[in-house]
Amino acid sequence: MMRAGDLAMVLLGVLATALAGYHVWPGQAAQRVRIYQEGQLYAELDANANQILAIAGPLGATRVEIARGRARVIADPSPRQYCVRAGWLQHAGDSAVCLPNRIAVTLEGDTPRYDSLGY
Amino acid sequence: MTASATEYTATSADVRVARYAALAIALSVLEAAVPSPIPGVKPGLANIVTLLVLWHHGWKEAAWVSGLRVFGASLALGGLFSPGFTLSCAGSIASLAVLAWACHLPRRHFGPISLSLLAAYAHIGGQLALARIWLIPHDGLIKLVPVFMLAALIFGIVNGVIAARILGNPE
């Protein structure tokens, strides 16, 4: 039932699928952390420089922790806490947006994955 | 009594195409009842019928069966001219285009499994291309490519094996 060409075709398919997965989901390491306050860039920091920052927003201070190439929002006054629950951001292109406190944290890699994001 | 202006006697090929298309539509409707973990990922059992027709009766009849199936299934399921229907069309056209080439592959080496796999990959290729151009014009769509490729791989093999089994034991 399985002919030689079929087997080759299946192997080709497995290879192509694996390659696609590898290329599309690279999980590029983050180099820098950008923090936005009220739509403006507030700070661009080295992702490997460990620190904790407090950024003032309309509702109060949002606390952001940067450690070992990762970043997270520790505490935020926004009611739904989506950015806190996003947990550690690890890959370039990941982001957490705290609304309505108007603070956003994004990770950047060596090459930008998109031109811009509007909040 | 004057004869009707349009008189048409169905050839045996017409009857055959109609029968196969009916079978394919039935399989599509049946398949729609099966819940899918990811929207858009379907086994595509009706493609087995297309493969059988292609193998026995050539590309032209397979294209007819496939086209009728796309129309018939969306009439039966109630999605005619919806985005889903358009995606279905794009997928079918892409796989028929690839099959038009692939059915000339030497049959000694390339059986229904090869055709099924090629058709499955072409199907998602056509669908994703249309989705990217028209429905979701954003490059983020590429993140879904491996998921759909994996589905095409699995269901391509499954459908191909089923078609090969049916073709292996004729009636």
Written description of the protein model:
The complex is a heterodimer of chains A (119) and B (171). Chain A is an alpha+beta fold. Chain A has a domain at 32-108: mini-chromosome maintenance (MCM) complex, domain 2 (Sandwich), CATH 2.60.320.10. Chain A has helices spanning 4-24, 82-85, and strands spanning 32-37, 40-46, 51-56, 61-67, 70-75, 95-98, 103-108. A four-stranded antiparallel β-sheet of chain A has the order 2-1-7-6. In chain A, a hairpin with a 2-residue loop joins strand 1 and strand 2. With 171 residues, chain B is mainly α. Chain B has a single domain (13-32, 41-168), classed as Orthogonal Bundle (Arp2/3 complex 21 kDa subunit ARPC3). Chain B has helices at residues 12-32, 46-57, 59-77, 83-102, 112-135, 145-168. The model of chain B has no long low-confidence stretch (mean pLDDT 91). The A-B interface holds A 1-6, 9-10, 13-14, 16-17, 20-21, 24-25 and B 105-106, 108-111, 113-114, 117-118, 121, 142-143, 145-146, 149-150, 152-153, 156-157, 160-161, 164-165, 168.
